[in-house]
Task: structure prediction
Amino acid sequence: MAARPRPASAEARDALRDAMARLAAGDQAALEEIYRMTRVKLFGITLRILGDRKEAEDALQDVYINLWQRADRYDPARASPISWLATFARNRAIDRLRTGKVRGGSVGIEEAAPLPDESPLADALLVDAEQAAQIHKCIAGLDKRTQTHIRAAFFDGQTYAQLAEQADVPLGTMKSWIRRGLQRLRACLEASEKA
Result:
């Protein structure tokens, strides 16, 4: 029986994981590979949160500078490389909002769509359909309130403070709700990996 070929997304994920390890070991060329493989996805995240192309570019530059300085903090046992980088980009963009570095002037969403790039989208390369389906299945298993808050925080870039204000609850309560939801989500994903 012939072995099934590995999906391109698994190969891309392995290539990114390898580049992250080489960067942590001081290989400068690895940063260029990581940039090439992730720039579109990470720029999309920063642009969606900041709403300004220039600000998103500045935030993205911060991401790669900090990655160069802190690549050794990536732990492949805890997260996929693209998930770690996406969280890093999201947090960097939110930090810029919090510190008031954003100058204002927003870009319409229609300008965010035509990002020039010849290669396949990062999502198609780095997250295979089975894993994405499992994540959505696990999120769907959460109660509606938790689903809404987790999606708003991690997919829409809203801060815990914004969510707490919208729900009219104390910030600590919102953090607890999301933390418990993430724990249930993690348990579901770990169970599916073992199955």
